[in-house]
């Protein structure tokens, strides 16, 4: 039976509440485009999701095995759990998310990030079907090895186009975090359990560190983490200090980057100078040797004709006179 393509997208909707019920998608792709002033609920697990050219919308997306793409959007509230979140060419996005890899930004500003907070009947089962891995599944391993293995990288943003004058993204202040949003679905039963740990600073019970920025991003410095005892003011001070350190590191990197180039230029100039000097000396020596050979030939010819003179003494004197003459010419 041929699938109805219209079941797999919301397009050109305005001022509406839109939803997809559990079982309507079952791991398929889904697209949301050109929607304005809409509230959108996807109560199912998916393969990947595309959100394009939307304005002033609230978008709630079920567990997604692959990537969620947000492109050319403005003033969007996003609630999503996925293997990856990619936001490009957008502004003023509020995203409360679970992301199994570093969220990525490109040409985007005004992004506010917070931990995931949206559940519905059957969410936990959909989370498992999408093969996502919440951090607490590794809790026993973490306790044994005394390490923190966190699968949720919601705060570890990799910004491909960082802004030197201001940051393109920031964390949601804990006092503005709305807490868990539970959406009941008429006629649908299922667990309302949230499998995703919430950090204590946001009212949860998880001791997982909140890491600011991707560890692979050049514009992000060392790890910064906060816990329940950290105030927003203290956290902001740490962020500002870290940003200052980043500026200083960038300046140092630029200086270090330029030094080898200058040193290389100097070395090349020295090599060029020494090479020219060596060539000059060689040419000069060749010219001198050539000149010496000419005089030696003259002396040899005179010596061969020594019979025309009174003995070898005269030849020796003439040779010395010739040598003296050569010195005078120099």
From TrEMBL:
SUPFAM superfamilies membership: C-terminal domain of adenylylcyclase associated protein
Record domain C-CAP/cofactor C-like: where: 1-162
Gene Ontology molecular function: any one: nucleotide binding
Cited InterPro entries: C-CAP_CF_C-like, CAP/MinC_C, CAP_C_sf, CARP_motif, Tubulin-bd_cofactor_C_dom, XRP2
Coiled coil regions in record: 231-258
Pfam families associated with the record: TBCC
Gene Ontology process terms (BP): post-Golgi vesicle-mediated transport
One term under GO cellular component: cilium
Keywords: Coiled coil, Nucleotide-binding
Family: Belongs to the TBCC family.
The protein's name in its UniProt record: Retinitis pigmentosa 2, putative
Organism of this sequence: Ichthyophthirius multifiliis
């Amino acid at each position: 039976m041929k699938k109805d393509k219209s079941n797999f997208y919301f397009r050109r909707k305005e001022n509406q509440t839109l939803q997809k019920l559990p079982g309507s998608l079952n791991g398929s792709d889904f697209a949301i485009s050109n929607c304005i002033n809409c509230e959108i609920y996807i109560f199912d697990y998916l393969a990947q999701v595309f959100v394009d050219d939307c304005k002033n919308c609230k978008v709630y997306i079920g567990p997604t095995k692959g990537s969620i793409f947000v492109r050319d959007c403005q003033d969007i509230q996003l609630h999503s759990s996925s293997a990856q979140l990619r936001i490009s060419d957008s502004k003023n996005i509020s995203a409360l998310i679970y992301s199994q890899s570093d969220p990525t930004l490109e040409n985007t500003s005004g992004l506010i990030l917070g931990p995931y907070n949206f559940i519905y009947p059957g969410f936990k089962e959909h989370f498992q079907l999408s093969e996502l891995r919440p951090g607490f599944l590794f809790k026993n391993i973490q306790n044994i090895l005394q390490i923190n293995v966190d699968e949720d990288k919601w705060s570890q943003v990799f910004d491909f186009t960082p802004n030197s004058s201001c940051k393109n993204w920031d964390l949601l202040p804990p006092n503005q975090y709305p807490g868990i949003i539970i959406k009941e679905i008429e006629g649908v039963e299922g667990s309302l359990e949230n499998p995703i740990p919430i950090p204590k600073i946001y009212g949860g019970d998880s001791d997982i560190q909140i890491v600011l920025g991707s560890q692979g991003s050049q514009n992000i410095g060392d790890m910064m983490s906060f816990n329940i005892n950290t105030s927003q003011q203290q956290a902001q001070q740490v962020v500002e200090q870290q940003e200052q350190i980043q500026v200083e590191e960038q300046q140092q990197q630029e200086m270090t980057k330029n030094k080898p180039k200058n040193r290389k230029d100097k070395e090349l100039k020295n090599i060029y100078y020494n090479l020219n000097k060596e060539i000059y000396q060689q040419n000069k020596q060749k010219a001198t040797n050539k000149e010496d050979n000419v005089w030696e030939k003259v002396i040899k010819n005179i010596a061969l004709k020594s019979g025309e003179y009174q003995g070898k003494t005269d030849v020796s004197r003439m040779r010395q006179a010739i040598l003296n003459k050569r010195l005078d010419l120099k």
